[in-house]
Predict the 3D structure of the following.
Amino acid sequence: MTLKQLEYICKVAEKLNITDAANELFIAQPSLTHAINELEKEMNIIIFNRTNKGVIITNDGEEFLRYARQVLEQANLLNDKYKIKENRSPKFSVSCQHYSFCVSAFSDTIKKFDSNQYDFTIRETQTHEIIDDVYNSKSEIGVLYLSSKNKEVITKLLTKNELLFTPLFKALPHVFISKNHPLANKDLITIEDLKPYPYLTYEQGNYNSFYFSEEFLSSIDKDKNIMVRDRATLFNLAVSLNGYTVSSGIILKDVNASSIIAKPLKYDEIMEIGYIKKKNVSLSEYGKAYIEFIKDYIN
């Protein structure tokens, strides 16, 4: 088994097609197929089932790929520490809830390690996918929040997947609304104030319980509810429909719509935003820089 073989199967798992993977790896398809067959034979498992439309990852393959990504992750860390920097192509990935400071910190990280070649990825995605991404080594870091309402469930899931949560800061709940919203002039907004307006939340797929929600008020019944998948859509609806959502209160004008403001919410809850990573796996220099940039923004 070689690192090159592990890179090959990870690329095939990403593309779910051997031809597409071979093209991206700049090798002949027969050579890639042979390398995979040799690895499967050596490990005595079937990683992929071949079909006319591509490949399907087997259950054994899913487990093997998790270990393969972890080995490649550790190899990259060794390269980061000891390889000549001029020959290094930076690679870093992060998955996060919909926080503008995560995007800005990601941009700063790219600028810090600017290179002629790099492969950086950021995914603003669902809470459960963030955990899955870090567990499966698709992302080095995941950024999410804990509160008294979700902490027990999320912590159990992190423990099960051998992930570590490190707090970054605590925040009181704030309402994100349009600067022209009827409540925009209030110094403190109450739950009662919000009743007439649409509640905007991020859709969580198969895990649409309040434990995985990004918003504090998901456990409270509301008459008007709208689910979205991205931050731009949420802010557009906040402006056009006088909708609202609830988050940390941190607004960065260069990332968020300039028409959105944050107002304190009278609600007995605290959110603790932090990052998750694999236990016993050190952050890369990119991961460390990313966390420091986040701290700069939240300070």
In short: The mean pLDDT is 88. The longest strand covers residues 163-171.
